[in-house]
Amino acid sequence: MSNWPDKYVSLIAPKLEQLPKLLFYSNQTPYSEWIPEQVKPGLLIDIRGRVKDKASRQINFLDELKEEIAFHFNPRFNERCVARNSCLNDEWGEEEEEPRNVLPFQCGYPFQLLILVTHECYKVAVNGIHFIEFNHRFPYTKVKYLEIDGDVSVENIHYGKDPATLDASSSLLSKPYSIYNPELPFYHLIAEKIVPGFMIYINGAPIDDPCRITFNFKKMATEDSDIPFHFDIRFDEGSVVRNTLENYEWGVEERAIPSFPFSSAANFDLIFLVQNKKFMVVVDGKPYIEYTHRIALTDIAFFHIEGDLNVFSVSFCD
């Protein structure tokens, strides 16, 4: 682990300074509120919540009288698609459903929905991954209300302007984002983001008398998925085991650690930084271990947390 302090300062510290500071609240649907910012290019709306049941749910952008639906975003679990449309003068327009059989929401799991207003369209990203664009059919300057309805729990809605995304060609993936107080087990889609330089920062605390805490970088959000990187904190052994599961077989465990820095009910900060040939792991601001890739980064699609802990925040930085 040569030159770790220098690597930590140059690679990790700047990312921590970029983490967003947002206001949070809980709100049950239906939700219908005046948009507090002027709707114009550069407005970024950050919606975070949790999907409940496999029922239809919808997000609508409406005019001042709530008579015109400028943008209708409708995830449909029974059809495995997200329909988009506008309803103007009491008539629905042509529905957009592509890509079909792609539904970026999971029942029972949290989500982050980013909607960016540009001159030409609404750009939408789900869980940090660019999803669709919807060209304006109604003047965005006349949009005044946001409505959310269906079997979804809204945890926060944040309005802001992101200078990095004012250009319509810019990506929604360039800014850090955080998920607060997620329920466990926690799965988060990180496909297309898991490249050298990508960082995950977890703040949490073990429960009283913990046994195991597990962090996995997985290929699929299933129990039998390949696990390119398994980081398993074992309080019953006083060890931290790292390994890879491929084709239902575990590889050789790595157990060497400089110390066991985790304690019952004591807060910790844990960082996973992706590098070309390895993961770098930092605990409470101190370099901890490295883990050489055994499976290609392209095989990683989900980040998974489970075990005896309370997670206060999980932050993702490109």
Automatic annotation (TrEMBL):
The UniProt keywords, alphabetically, are: Lectin, Repeat
Q: Does the keyword Magnesium apply?
A: no
Ranges that cross the membrane: none
Matching entries from Pfam families are given as: Gal-bind_lectin
Domain of life, source organism: Eukaryota
Query: InterPro entries from the entry?
Result: ConA-like_dom_sf (IPR013320), Galectin-like (IPR044156), Galectin_CRD (IPR001079)
Q: Report the GO molecular function annotations.
A: carbohydrate binding
Q: Which residues form the Galectin domain?
A: 31-160, 186-317
Q: Which SMART domains match?
A: Gal-bind_lectin, GLECT
Which PANTHER family does this entry report, sorted A to Z? Answer: GALECTIN
Q: What is this protein called?
A: Galectin
